[in-house]
Amino acid sequence: MRSADGDLNAYDLLQAVQNFTGTSCARRVQLERLASDTMYQFPFSIDGLERSRNQLASLERLDEEVHTSDGIELRLLGREIARAIEFANNPDNFDGVQILLSFEASQTQLELHLESSIEFFRSKGLDFERPEIFLVEELPAPFDRGSASVVTIDAEDEQRFEIKAGIYFTRHAITPIFADYTIAHELVHWVLGLRTPSLMATQFEEGVADFVALFGYVSEQYGELVSRNTALIHRLTSASGLVWENYVDASRATYLAVTRTGFSDLYAAIGRGREFLDVYRRSYARSVIATAAQAFVAPGQVLLDFPRNRVVSALAFEVANYVRPGRTVFEIAELGRMSRELAEVGIAELESAGYVTTRRDKIVIEYAPVTTYIEDGEFRYDFRRG
Ligand SMILES: [Zn+2]
Predict the structure, then answer these.
(1) DSSP 168
(2) What is the CA(380)–ligand 1 centre distance, in A?
(3) pLDDT tens across 274-288, in order?
(4) Structural contact between residues 366 and 358, judged by C-beta atoms closer than 8 angstroms
(5) Domains of the chain, with CATH numbers?
(6) How many angstroms separate the alpha carbon of residue 45 from the centre of ligand 1?
(7) Tens of pLDDT along 128-181?
(8) Residue 126 alpha carbon to ligand 1 centre in Å
(9) Residues in CB range of 181: below 8 A, 6 or more apart
């Protein structure tokens, strides 16, 4: 998220690194709320991350016993920053770190991403007129009323709303990886809008745009792991609502179709326009596919297998790292460096969600299926309240 003057800050860098490293933190809106006081004041640099971590360490003595959930959240944030610093200082990650640190929130940056997206689609057989891209303070009316931060205007919209055709980007949408991924997504609308401006984008089209941007473009540009992390962060574990759910459902439908047709038929359908995309949807995405194609295992795991109900509070997440059958609440509190009362609250949450069972006297853990989910990396925390 951009500060008022448009400069990137340490939080932007943390977010961007998470696209490379992954993160256990779901619903990043809440992470941002927690991080903003600390991280917005520091620059978009490794030094900025280090200063954020030091600031955090002075707020909360991170190695001592913690007595509140807030303390646990700060501890987890401190860990996220430490991981980002570790990533940035690892010479094996040099290329990725260079990509991130050379990023600027500028028109030039948008143009660069636009070029590489266009080149990607050309390599898939899609040739089209280049859109103009506009960096704006606010989206043009009537698109300024919703929560969107980017919009694509086609020839039909141009006439209807008297807005010049092209892709409009607000400042706060220009962050590393996200801006690049979003331009690839918007280009799918742009191409379809050139062929069929009279038809509106459907929900399926949103799924197609997301699928192609994430598992086509980002995967080719940054690697499969980054495409997986970006899908998890921006769609599957971000502040969710019906709108994002629809995008994800439509991406799943697209995935099913692609397991049957391969990517090339999908690109061909995009190139022919919206009515052809609809035929594609009805011919492939809706039909039940009996055998999942082996070639597309990675997107399938993210879109079909990621268990979205495995999101708990920061406290329960931290406690979950220490529960084992036979362990006492006292031992868990000691291992987790937290008060016994706090450990009890965390255990109670895990128990109410069926992740642990305690003995009748509540003092000893009897059964802890949560440990498998932690080990498999399927557990996430968020900073929910109440
Ligand atoms: Zn879209």
Answers:
(1) E
(2) 27
(3) 999 988 887 877 654
(4) yes
(5) 10-101 (no CATH), 107-305 (no CATH), 311-382 (1.10.10.10)
(6) 31
(7) 999 999 999 999 988 887 778 899 998 888 888 899 999 999 988 899 999 999
(8) 18
(9) 213, 214, 217, 218, 230, 234
